[in-house]
Amino acid sequence: MKPYEQIDRRNFLTKSTTIITGGALGLGIIPNGALGAEVISDELENVIGPREGFSPQIGTLLSMMTWMRATILYPVNGMSVKELDYQHDDKSNTIGAMLLHLAATERYYQIDTFEGKKREDWSPTDNDKFGVAMELGDEGRNKIKGNSLDFYLNTLNEVRENTITEFRKRDDKWLMAIDQDWFWGPTNNYCKWFHVCEHESNHNGQIKWIKGRLPQTK
User: Fold this and answer.
1) Confidence band of 217 (pLDDT split at 50, 70, 90)
2) What is d(CA 42, CA 34) in angstroms, rounded to the nearest whole number?
3) At what angle do helices 95-115 and 149-168 cross, to 10 degrees?
4) Among 190, 167, 189, residue whose Cα is nearest residue 179
């Protein structure tokens, strides 16, 4: 089974061009502009591999992250605030909260790998913007609500733009560098950033599960 067999990716990207160029979806799946046609194009959207302007392994990683981001954004396309805020039960996260959590997680790994800071060293700005979304739980269920889809897409885009900018500055030696003190054991930057991609895949399944249980779909 192809991972995208339920998604007409080419048509989705084509139909989203107007939104993308207006900044709502941004670099996550943009086929031209700041990422450049060499990063995502009709010919390369389903080809994982190096990208012009990046070291070989970083470009390959970015191609995976970009593919996964398109898969995340497809099922939420056009969602209303009510749908984004739907909570299936008292232990569930809303789709909106999960989208903001994805942005927070990517920011977490930016701060760790680009800035060399730990969670306790986050700036007040990052804490205010991403602290609740990073942890989710009851506080997230209570506070992350009432936001439009554009709010979540713009936040995801803003964070991804920073990732791309920083990736361009680095090489494969940096990507392979090992953090001996990482909390789950020695881990290189490649594994940390692959986890960002894998993390989106995990929440993609949760988002689709919640979407299938929205009241208006019954």
Assistant:
1) low
2) 16
3) 20
4) 189
Token digits of residue 84:
């984004």
Cβ atoms within 10 Å, residue 150: 14
The whole-angstrom separation of Cα 139 and Cα 187 is 30
Q: Of 166, 55, 188, 69, whose CA–CA distance to 110 is shortest? A: 166
Q: How far is CA 127 from CA 58, 85, 90, 152, 196, in A?
A: 28, 22, 25, 17, 19
With 80 as the cut, is the pLDDT of residue 27 above it? no
For residue 188, the 8-state DSSP code is E
Beta pairing class for 178-179 and 187-188? antiparallel
How far apart CA 162 and CA 74 sit, in angstroms, is: 22
Helix axes 95-115, 189-211, angle to 10 degrees: 170
The pTM of this model reads 0.80
Whether the Cβ atoms of residue 39 and residue 66 lie closer than 8 Å to each other? yes
Please tell me the distance from the alpha carbon of residue 66 to that of residue 80, in angstroms, as a whole number: 24
- Residue 78: left (phi > 0), alpha (psi -120 to 50), or beta? left
Instruction: Please give the full DSSP string across 102-144, using - where no structure is assigned.
Output: HHHHHHHHHHHHHH---GGG--HHHHHHHHHHHH-HHHHHHHS
